[in-house]
Amino acid sequence: MKPVIVVDLGGTNLRIARVVGNNVEHREIFSTPRGAESIVGLIAEQAMKLSAGTAVGVAVAAPGAVSRGLGGLSKAPNLPELDGYPMAEEIRRLSGLHCMVENDANAYAVGEVTYGAAIGYKSVVVITLGTGIGGGIVLEGRLWRGADGVAAEIGHVCIEENGRRCGCGASGCAEAYGSASSMLRLAKEYGSNATSAREAYELAKNGEQAALKAFKRAGTALGILISSLVNILNPQAVVIGGGGSAAYDLLEPYILEEMKLRTFPLAMRNLQLLRCKLKNYAALLGAAVLLEEQIST
After folding, report:
1. Do 259 and 224 form a contact (C-beta atoms < 8 A)?
2. How many domains are there within the chain?
3. Rg (CA), the chain
4. Using CA atoms, how far apart are residues 250 and 158, in angstroms rounded to an integer?
5. Confidence band (pLDDT; 50, 70, 90) for 131?
6. CB within 8 Å of 207: residues ≥ 6 apart
7. Same domain, 64 and 128
């Protein structure tokens, strides 16, 4: 099996790794530069360095709506300089390596299904809790991208009519309640002195009522969201990932409480609710799998 160079591109950090199968042989972390040319220049430079002439290509997992025709992001809220920019073509031109761009939550989902918490399941919904809520859907062993490549915008399922304003401009989205950043915002609103989601979690574990209330609200919102997804898709498993999954033990009871109330019993009977296993490596490993699939077809 030949190496793949994989990039996990975020608004703050850019992680690039050399991956062989499920083994991350080497990983570097950089601050994400500003400007499309600077971003692809850094990726191409590091890809050539890590490849050493042996890699089959470069897979970029990036946040936003991916246009496969463009070979880049049609909309990237956290990296607007990449809107409409042909990333794959430019990286290929600069590095000489085949390149693919995939949505980071899709790559994360494929990683968890192939090597992580959902090994052995063919139909899985993966939910990532971070600054927002992302997701990926695998049906009968195949990643579901949708008619226009923007399927699984899970965070923007409405769970409360006329609810909290979401960053997307709509009201009542699950993201406005259940993302890691929303957990912190809710804790502050309820009177906590937490300055980060991690600190809110620690305060909740130590019994602070304001922080506990925030995680109850977040877990309830996620339970409503997951119930809707399960009723529509009837997956074998739902995986909770992303940074917010660190609070899984606090969220799980409220998620399950809502699911028992709202999920069709037959869909709930054999469903597995799982916590991610691969963490920061999920998107890297999943993107490598997707690139290998693309090259082989």
Report:
1. no
2. 2
3. 19
4. 23
5. confident
6. none
7. no
* The token pair that represents 48 in the structure block: 């050539």
Residue 148 lies in a domain: yes
Which pLDDT score is estimated for 149? Answer: 80
Q: What DSSP string describes 136-155?
A: EEEETTEE---TTS----GG
Q: Do residues 129 and 221 touch, judged by C-beta distance below 8 A?
A: no
In a domain, 110, yes or no: no
Whether 111 is in a domain gets the answer no
Which range marks the domain in which residue 20 is found?
4-104+281-296
- Is the pLDDT at 69 greater than 90? The verdict is no
Please report how the helices 209-233 and 197-205 are oriented relative to each other, as an axis angle in degrees rounded to 10.
110
Distance CA 64, CA 50 (A): 26
pLDDT tens-digit series, residues 137-147: 999 999 999 88
CATH of the domain at 289: 3.30.420.40
d(CA 81, CA 204): 38
Round to whole Å and give the CA distance between 11 and 228.
30
How confident is the prediction for the chain on average, in pLDDT? 93
